[in-house]
């Protein structure tokens, strides 16, 4: 329900039309997944309504922001069976409008998703039999669209949003977008699932206002395999490529816990972001900063992407601009992952916190501006995706107002002290990338050699091996050393470079433990670092033991605290 202090003059009436799949989800939980030919006993079984179309329609309807006289409408097909009857009843009970008689396909079964979940690892296997979903034809969609957008059901609708996915026949999905576009509706395509080897063609691009892929779907649309997924700079470049191919307003890449990245044409209004010379703007978006559930644990991420898409369509139908709508939709998706299930986890109108209600957007009318928590992008100069993932973990925080991406850059080999090298590398990277960047350099420094090998440890190790590094100290009565990481950060080209250093004190010893991790076998942290107990080299430690005294972790802790302080001071 709308708050009483929101004038109807402020909120243009609008409707949401979802064209997509309707499935019955059959989920079995077991301690492991069966091997071929194996039968195992499960621990739990649930039957729920599903399908991306149904999920998105329920998400759009349940939050209660769509104009009640216009509503959320579902165009889809179920079989003429008991499962289909239950799915339609579930949609109607959630406030979704539909034509029951036109929603049944005779002679075929309702779409079914058989899901097996490993309760130990959380892994799952899914087999989908689309059934009636593939019997939703172009003619039925066009007739329904005409009735809803220009016929007797059209009403006084100032803004209609049509949301389509790819769990129906592709030719039907395309026709839905084309019909909606011709009738003046805002069109959204969620390209999920993106069929292997399938590409959007010009006729698709010319009918899409907003394209919403996740990271996997983005890579697939751009011709990459799942093992070639890229993040950061690569994600932005791919989203720009899709926009330049003809998407009319913007591409929104959903990024899970990282929020969403909006890549849009500059004429689409919104807050300032990273603007390029090609007339395209990139904005990193996350949920509202005052969302109450942010501190609660994540329980189940199933259906979160559908929650985002459905909520976005609902907010856009009320005339809210793209950036604000995306921010609020991140909030709805964030609320959904705190509960188990998909449709069952979507918040209802009476559960929405103030920051997700319509009246919070329009407080500008009363002197209070709605704040969008945009996230500044910082580029980690590395081509190693595993290092990027680890750094994103080290820097994560609920109040962290930055998005970390990566960019591979070949920098010149420099000479000097570790600090001088780190500072100069960061300065060069910032000038070349023309953005806020940080670099990471790790050294192993021998006190007996006045800090050498230091930043040249990789070259020394490759040339001498572990035994040779020990022999370097023969004749010196000092086996002490320290492991060092230096993070160098530049806010932008020409800006002063900040250094953040972490050290772990130790000894150089004959190699012990696995030799797969560089110089770890010859570095034994001091007793003060390790505490009581057996003395171990880095290579003999568990990950948790090493992390407890990690020079790298200490450097990133300092960097993280600096960024958080910078973020607070800029508010």
Automatic annotation (TrEMBL):
Cofactor list: Mg(2+); Mn(2+)
GO molecular function: ATP binding; dITP diphosphatase activity; ITP diphosphatase activity; metal ion binding; ribokinase activity; XTP diphosphatase activity
Domain Carbohydrate kinase PfkB: 15-348
Family matches, as InterPro entries: ITPase, ITPase-like_fam, PfkB_dom, RdgB/HAM1, Ribo/fructo_kinase, Ribokinase, Ribokinase-like
Reaction catalysed by this enzyme: D-ribose + ATP = D-ribose 5-phosphate + ADP + H(+); dITP + H2O = dIMP + diphosphate + H(+); ITP + H2O = IMP + diphosphate + H(+); XTP + H2O = XMP + diphosphate + H(+)
One Gene Ontology cellular component: nucleus
Pfam families in alphabetical order: Ham1p_like (PF01725), PfkB (PF00294)
Cofactor: how bound: Binds 1 divalent metal cation per subunit; can use either Mg(2+) or Mn(2+).
Residues at which Mg(2+) binds: 413, 441
Pathway: Carbohydrate metabolism; D-ribose degradation; D-ribose 5-phosphate from beta-D-ribopyranose: step 2/2
Known EC number: 3.6.1.66, 2.7.1.15
UniProt keyword terms in alphabetical order: ATP-binding, Carbohydrate metabolism, Cytoplasm, Hydrolase, Kinase, Magnesium, Manganese, Metal-binding, Nucleotide metabolism, Nucleotide-binding, Nucleus, Potassium, Transferase
Its biological purpose: Pyrophosphatase that hydrolyzes non-canonical purine nucleotides such as inosine triphosphate (ITP), deoxyinosine triphosphate (dITP) or xanthosine 5'-triphosphate (XTP) to their respective monophosphate derivatives. The enzyme does not distinguish between the deoxy- and ribose forms. Probably excludes non-canonical purines from RNA and DNA precursor pools, thus preventing their incorporation into RNA and DNA and avoiding chromosomal lesions. Catalyzes the phosphorylation of ribose at O-5 in a reaction requiring ATP and magnesium. The resulting D-ribose-5-phosphate can then be used either for sythesis of nucleotides, histidine, and tryptophan, or as a component of the pentose phosphate pathway.
Protein name: Multifunctional fusion protein
């Amino acid at each position: 329900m709308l708050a009483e202090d929101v004038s109807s003059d402020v909120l243009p009436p609008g409707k949401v039309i979802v064209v997509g799949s309707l499935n019955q989800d059959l989920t079995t939980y077991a301690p492991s997944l069966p091997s071929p030919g194996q039968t195992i006993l499960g621990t739990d079984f649930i039957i729920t309504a599903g399908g991306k179309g149904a999920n998105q329609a329920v998400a759009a309807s349940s939050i209660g922001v769509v104009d009640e006289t216009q509503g959320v409408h579902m165009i889809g097909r179920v079989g003429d069976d008991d499962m289909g009857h239950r799915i339609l009843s579930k949609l109607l009970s959630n406030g979704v409008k539909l034509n029951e008689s036109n929603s049944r396909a005779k002679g075929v079964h309702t779409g079914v998703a058989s899901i097996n979940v490993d309760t130990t690892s959380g892994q799952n296997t899914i087999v989908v039999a689309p059934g009636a979903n593939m019997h939703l034809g172009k003619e039925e969609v066009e007739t329904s669209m005409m009735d809803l957008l220009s016929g007797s059901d059209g009403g006084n609708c100032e803004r209609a949003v049509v949301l389509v996915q790819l769990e129906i026949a592709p030719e039907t999905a395309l026709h839905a977008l084309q019909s909606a576009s011709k009738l003046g509706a805002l069109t959204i395509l969620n390209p999920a699932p993106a069929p292997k080897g399938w590409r959007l063609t010009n006729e698709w691009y010319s009918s899409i206002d907003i394209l919403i892929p996740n990271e996997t779907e983005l890579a697939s649309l751009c011709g990459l395999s799942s093992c070639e997924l890229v993040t950061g700079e690569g994600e932005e470049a791919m989203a720009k490529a899709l926009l330049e191919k003809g998407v009319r307003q913007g591409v929104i890449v959903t990024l899970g816990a990282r929020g969403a990245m909006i890549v849009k044409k500059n004429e689409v209004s919104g807050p300032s972001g990273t603007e390029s010379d090609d007339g395209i703007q990139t904005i990193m978006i996350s949920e509202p900063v005052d969302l109450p559930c942010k501190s609660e644990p994540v329980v189940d991420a199933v259906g979160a992407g559908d929650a985002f898409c459905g909520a976005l369509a609902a907010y856009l139908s009320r005339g809210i601009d793209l950036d604000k709508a995306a921010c609020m939709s991140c909030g709805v998706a964030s609320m959904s992952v705190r509960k188990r299930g998909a449709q069952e986890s979507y918040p209802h109108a009476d559960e929405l916190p103030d920051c997700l209600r319509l009246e919070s957007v329009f407080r500008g009318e009363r002197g209070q501006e709605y704040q969008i928590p945009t996230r500044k992008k910082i580029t980690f100069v590395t081509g190693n995706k595993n290092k990027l993932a680890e750094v994103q973990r080290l820097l994560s925080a609920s109040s962290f107002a930055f998005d970390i991406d990566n960019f591979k850059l070949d920098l010149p080999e420099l000479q000097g002290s570790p600090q001088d090298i780190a500072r100069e590398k960061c300065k060069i990277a910032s000038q070349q990338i023309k953005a806020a960047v940080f670099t990471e350099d790790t050294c192993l420094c021998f006190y007996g050699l006045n800090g050498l090998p230091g930043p040249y440890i990789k070259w020394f190790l490759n040339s001498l091996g572990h035994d040779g590094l020990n022999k370097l100290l023969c004749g010196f009565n000092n086996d002490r050393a320290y492991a060092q990481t230096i993070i160098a950060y530049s806010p932008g080209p020409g800006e002063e470079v900040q250094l953040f250093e972490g050290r772990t004190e130790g000894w150089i010893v004959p190699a012990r433990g696995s030799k797969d991790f560089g110089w770890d076998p010859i570095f034994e942290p001091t007793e003060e670092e390790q505490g009581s107990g057996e003395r171990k080299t880095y290579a003999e430690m568990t990950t948790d033991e090493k992390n407890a005294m990690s020079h790298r972790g200490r450097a990133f802790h300092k960097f993280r605290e600096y960024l958080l302080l910078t973020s607070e001071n800029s508010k």
